[in-house]
Amino acid sequence: MTIVVGYIPRPEGLAAVDTAIAEAELRGKRLVVVNTGHHGDYNNPSFASPQDIDALDAQLTERGIEHEIRQPTRGLAPADELLDTAAETGASLIVIGIRRRSPMGKLITGSTAQQVLLDAPCDVLAVKAAES
Description:
Structural class: alpha/beta
Order of helices and strands: EHEHEHEHHE
Number of helices: 5
Mean pLDDT: 90
């Protein structure tokens, strides 16, 4: 079985990856990391740099975690990419990072986390970054 994690190079994304690594090690599962731009905008800061991807790949390899890192460029919403990957890989868990948002912010901009929580074909673990 597989664990899918949504990764963005921000504190909530790093918290999700750290948690997914711990889960993969604990359960002996393969990890699929998904990083995508916001609705096809691959200049968006959510799209990790090659240096970020290389560092993450090195970290996972060093820890002996079977893994794959995907940066899909289909222009889909991040939630759709995570859900498609989970379905394709038969994931047993999706790990996502969340940040605090106001109710109005959720109403206006929508919520990737909400879509994943509602539509996931498996369990979802939502984690927050440690407060500074």
